[in-house]
Fold each of these.
Amino acid sequence: MSTDAETPGDDRRKYEFRKVIEDLREHEGSGTQLVTIYVPPDRQISDVVSHVTQEHSEAANIKSKDTRTNVQDALSSLRSRLRYYDNPPENGMVLFSGAIDSGGGQTDMITQVLEEPPDPVQSFMYHCDSEFLTEPLEEMLADKGLFGLVVLDRREANVGWLKGKRVEPVKSASSLVPGKQRKGGQSAQRFARLRLEAIDNFYQEVAGMANDLFVPKRHEMDGVLVGGPSPTKDEFLDGDYLHHEIGDLVVDKFDVSYTDESGLHDLVDAASEALADQEVMKDKAEMDEFFGELNKGDLATYGFEATRRNLVMGAVDRLLLSEDLRGDVVVYDCPSGEEYELIDRGRAAPEHTCSSGASAEASEREDAIDHLMAIAESRGTETKFISSDFEDGERLDVAFGGIAGILRYSTGV
């Protein structure tokens, strides 16, 4: 597994980005009037402005007056925003603008610029539809990973990378292994020996390619996938041809029919289930530790109230939040001080009975994750988002309210 830990701010940035995408996906236009523009880092801003100006001119041909007006207003807003930039940011930028349906036949014009996408924007895109185009951003948020790929049979081999969801072929080799039919004049025993030597030489050559490629990156890699027909891939792995540190990274071996560059893609498809398991292994480790501490009764906390109190005390080492947590924290002014309540997002704030028995109305409201992460950051607590795509991750969401923590010391809370 990779030894390069994520920085403490990575989860917060991912969450904030995910929240922006969720908000954008909720917006709808009454027509094809929501404009999305993806700007790669090497694109000249002047070129983008020219494109927007051209689209504004062409929008004059839209038959519907409302749609025409809304599209041109959106493009004018984007053009105004672009004038604040001399060059795109390091990873490029994504711009959204349009008249969104606010209910009751009314619309609101919104314009938003995302300056720090997680990965560089790959190509310029202009999109006008009834929804904002968010799929490329969602792909950036997909679990990242670096896996070495090897496909081989006794005729050829290819090695490469799986970077995120992108397959990159790097090296290939063809073998000199003779066919199973011997040439005339050779004894069967001699032919078999020469053939085994050729196979061994080819496996060494393939291992050499893989080692040259993978060893320098071994501390950054999440695993190695090996594919091919049986018994080739089995002979290759059982023969310990790979560098021992690379051999230790082998996730599994998979049956793959093709061993050219297309075979690398087939290998990734065949390994999809194993890759999904790899993506949640770190989450599983966190939950295993949490349940271990919970069973001992010493260093685990869960639920909003107890976890929040432990956070404020600075006792939480790691805050565990379900990726499916959606809620708001409501703050009430009570005689003894502020009191807090977690409610479902979108639900009206209920009347609150203070610990003193007095009633109080809501004085403030904040996204629950933002609220908890702000406390965590101020106390030096690391936040981990836990996927619900495995049993214990789902238990965190359903049985523990999506909020838990592993403590630095026992607090009795």
Amino acid sequence: MSKQKVIVGLSGGVDSSVAAYLLKKQGYDVHGIYMINWHDTIGVNEGSCPGDDDVLIAEMVARKLEIPFETVDFSDIYRKRVVDYMFSEYELGRTPNPDVLCNREVKFDVFLKKALEMGADFVATGHYCRKETIEKDGRKIFRLLAGIDKNKDQSYFLCQLSQQQLEKALFPIGELEKPEVREIAAEMKLASAQKKDSQGICFVGKVELPVFLQQKLASKEGKIIKIETEKFGVSSENDFEGLDLDSKLQQLSQPYPFNSESGTEIGQHKGAHFYTIGQRKGLGIGGLKEPPFVLAIDVEKNIVYVGEGKKHPGLFRKGLFIQNAEIHYVRPDLKLIVGEGLKCLCRIRYRQELQKAEIFRREHGYFIIFEQAQRGITAGQFAAIYTDDELIASGVINQ
């Protein structure tokens, strides 16, 4: 009986290297592919360009493991599906997550298709997450589970995967913790054993975001308006007495209606679309008792609203809304019907602890209401929905 063929996305990092080693140890016919997805260096911090050394390290790992190795160039597709989407979202005043898009559009789409064309049975990556197969109504269902290492769990980045993509995916290090992965790499003397974890945008690296975005988005000077804490009207549960549930959901998920009359101009910026909610750095404002944080941006009027201190009430909200077109079910068999609700866990950014919440399906979309108000709910980001440690659905935050 011939071995099952697995193509590993070898990135030059320790995680994918150990994933390849474990798969070979388990008896698979392992092949390594390094994906070239980006060539430009505009706005990329010096020394952080992933392509500088990674392909050499990946090749050294493949040689050490005695597995075939090659490179593929998906840079045109990556630019169209990931980077161009980033530019368009920032222009609209939203903050996209390129790593989620990279997994959906590149690693588990064009890369997966390429692997299947090469005769692969599976593709594998070095993500800290797990896959489980169950049977339901006589058919197989693939569950996406959080990684054992809660500090490194990367299931959030895979929140847009489909059952078809999960069926062909393997996550060999999902049962391990990061120190164990490092230890295995050191024992096997893999070239990536001491390599630092990558940072910044997937396949691009750490970037100076305004410089990077200025490739397509023009600078445009505008006002920075400071919203005083004491002038801020914080909503309480009492404000919603007498409202029906749908009206309450609408109110809780609405962004705060800031305007230039509600605050004081304290500075100038070079384009509201270069900023995101919760941002502290890059405002160029001094002389305050506490650091300023971005509360909201208005790209039409080109205004950035800020508040003093990381606990400013304008940074916190209890709810968010996802349009029907933006919801994605990793588990379609668990899809809610209009009028249904579900107590769940949710995170709105990578590395955030799972938060207790309830999701409500309505005719025009989904409301997620948190038990505790959340800091920095940001349009364009993904909200990932879990039951226990299984990621069942996700959606792009509309407001």
Amino acid sequence: MRVTFVYPDFFSYDEEHFMPEGRIYLGIGYLSAYLKREGHHTALLHMVRPPKQEEFEERLAATSPDLVAFSSTTHLFPHVRRWSSWARRRLPGVPLVGGGAHATIDPEDALLSSSLDMVCLGEGEEALAELCAVLQEGRDHRRLPSFWVKDGEGIIRNPVRPLLEDLDSLPFPDRDIFDPEDFCEQQHERGTLMASRGCPYNCSYCSNHAQKRVYPNPEKYVRFRSVDNVMREIHQVIERDKEGRLRYIRFDDDILTLNREWFRELARRYREEVELPFVCNSRANLMDEESARLFAEAGCGVVCMGIESGNAQLRREVLNRPMREEQIIRAFRLCREHGMKTVSTNMTGLPGEGVSELLDTVKLNARARPDCMQVSVFHPYPHTRLHEICLERGLLTGRHVDTIFDGRSALNDPHFRDPAWQLAQRNFHAATELYSRLYDLGAAGERLARLLDRLFASGRRGWKLREGILKRLLSWAGRRQRFEWIHY
């Protein structure tokens, strides 16, 4: 069988402006490697810019596929809707299958709103290989586990197969399927891999808990590869770097330190065998003295941890992230003391977030002092708990955004029309710098920070005067920012 994967890897601001991403997507890499091991042939349309219909159809037809497999997030699924209709027009007899996060958490939408014939729910290596075998033999594919299939006006909803427990049984991702010409500059510098799959936490905004519940064995959702298997892939990635452009290893795992004994062994092996630094994700409530020391000794250069909201009530009751402010500040401090850079991830535009709650996030970053801040706008993913909350409160607008980083919200929350909220949200980095400099002044700075709070206060009274003062202060802070732009 010849399988052509189609993967959108850009985001659009509007019909005329877009931003290419150009990264390795390990999901397709694993699927391609697994299919090749089973004797199939694979190709990839790595779409790093919006194609015209004729261009897309010509590129797809040139691969002579027996099966076209689309993979996409919820943000980028509108492109799959459009492209699947183009594929159906050009290749009317070729089956079209969808997969990825959106197909897993909202399979009915993925199937009924597109020209796809079927969607794969959950991990797809075994499922896609079985589908290829069945299609190759000319047998009926409609009852295969993990697939929902169009059947006339209805849908055949097959149960999802159990999670694969032995990750070492998988081949390493097929990196050859990606054309380096499509990569952004940062992708050439990073060797990307995953040492595990799954996350045990149930943050209400994240699709993890929605994906976890599709499996018959959700208790096996978090799995780790053996350290030896991971190290062999790292060495392979380094050996492939013929041009000497590789600068660091990037672990794309949700949380690398969930299994402490496993991580101790990985840290030891990495320190002994690899000279490149690495970047990874962790979680503030898991970052203690030993973890920070192990990270640093192993060669970790950058740790990414979520703050998400600085407001304790939003963290606890809305996001289901019951972390204390002191835990978060201590985690960033420990990394700093052990010589590692840090990145905080933050969400704005949460349901019920007024200017006071938004400033709590600004101020917690000012106290935690990450080297870099990633600031996004919350987007409700289908069938997550926070999507349900937004639905219950009547906040959903149906507005689509390609990315959480373009500043637009998909919610209709009156808080977001407050000019003070809008000013703080647009100037998040400068506001954090301003509060940080005030906190540097000790008790006097704390008093000045409370005055700054009052300048940001909601309400129209005196706003024009306060806005003018705030804009001058934010402009001053913006020119003196100590935050970095870290590639990770």
Amino acid sequence: MTSKKPHALVLDSWAALAYLQGEPAAEKMGELVADAIERRIPLYMSVINAGEVWYILAREISAATADSAISDIRGWGVEFVDADWPLAQIAADFKSRYKISYADAFTAALAKQKRTHLVTGDKEFRSLGAEVNTVWL
């Protein structure tokens, strides 16, 4: 992470899933969310990435678990951001220039649009270099 304090955080599906599934990065992710809530730092997630969380959990566990996870994410105070054309255009630009999934491109696009930090542990984001500020889990 850069030394600059974020004014907001954009959560990647990788980060949310790591927390929800109790993976090694869960503790750090929990601390970030708790700190954001305490300091009133807005938390955002693209609806594209929320959908990614849902389909992964529905496929691996059940639709009910996926529904519960989305409710949990909203309970953390995360605002889901719709994918309008300006956001989609930034995501498409990232996808056209970097080896990154389209869903991940939306995470990066949202962080760029909000001019803030992206939270992830997904190494795919390394290809973006300095395009976005990243908080690594």
